[in-house]
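step 4 of 6: structure.
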Amino acid sequence: MDKESVNNTLEKLRKGDEAAFKRIYEENREKFLNFAKRYNLSDDENIDAYQDAYVIFYENIMSGKIENFTSSISTYLFSIGKYLIMDILKKNKKQVSSEFNLSIVKEDDNFMETIEIEEKSISKEQQLLLTYFETLGKKCQELLTLFYYRGYTINEIMKKESYNSENVVKSQKSRCMKTLRERIKSDHL
Amino acid sequence: MDKEALLTNYFSDSLTAEERQLFNQLLENDTKFKEQFEFEKDLKRAIKEKERIQLKAKLQDFETKLKHKSTPKTSNYKAWAIAASIAILLSVGWFGYDNFIKLDYNELYSENFQQYPNTSYTITRGDTDDSTERQAFVAYETGNYKTAIENFEKLDSNAKEYIDFYKAQTYLELNKINSAKSLFKKVISDNVEFVAESHWYLALISIKEKDKQSAISYLEQLVTNYDFNKEKAEVLLDHLK
């Protein structure tokens, strides 16, 4: 794929295009599983690693951490996947061989610095927040998701959701946060 | 600038250098500010988790549909089952059986042989690159070994050190064992990429050629010096000795 069509794909993903989301998953699946074979994990573990890598890849597009592609999509997936597999191997206490030569990954690994990979599990506080977040109204959930997940600025939210001014967005956001805090407080203090 | 604006800019990734400095100071000295920051950071992670769960569910769904479509393939489980059954045989005492169950070299070879996947050259659909290398790897991945070898032969193996290894793989598929063998040996003597892997394939070739001593020697080198396919190599070694 040339740069232009790759970045076109990225734009589609960012806009939430479901067909692109599915197509890219399927297009890179075999290649990834072939690549993962050499680590001698089970098939289920490999698929799991691919899915996690794909989700992280997608998150980084959505949050704007990957703004344009400097490599092919599979290279991103392989690099993230390699990282995740190494983590599984470490946890399984299987030895990681220095002989695993990742010729693809080596050259392009520098972009990994910009990619955000977080702990897989969440803390108690985060779990609590998740539960209460889901009790909020649709509008609040959308606004907070745009802000915290998609990394939109107040101004961008105003334009996207056709609010009248930035101040309206700000006060709407404060109200949502206040409701969230109050609901947690009333149940837990 | 008020504290709330600082936090807002932090989360939309638009802090100026000056604001960042102020932000860090507050984080250190202002417990209320820090608390608010932690709260928002946790919320950010919580929202991410919610999205993650939804995305994972979608992918699981793709996976189920794919599995219905495709035919089952030989998986790792098969390899493990073979290893396990060999292990059981061994514990019973291979020695005693050796007299009436002949070591089936061909079977041992085909049970363990698996073509090495192309991990060196990325092929993307709609790629404009139409180089010889690309053509070689496309053919390799799709099993057109004749085309693959024609193109591999045109390439300068000094330029890309992984070429010899894939060339050897292709010769192996074409049943040109001697060509494969000398290339794997070259990879080892050049000490480039895929040294461990080449030991493994040389051991398999020796098994195919019923050359027990060489097989043992390659496997022993593999087990002592590398981790690639170590467990499988150990099972094979037990089997051969």
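step 5 of 6: annotate
 - The longest helix of chain A spans residues 166-188.
 - Residues 158 and 169 of chain A are 6 Å apart (CA to CA).
step 6 of 6: archive
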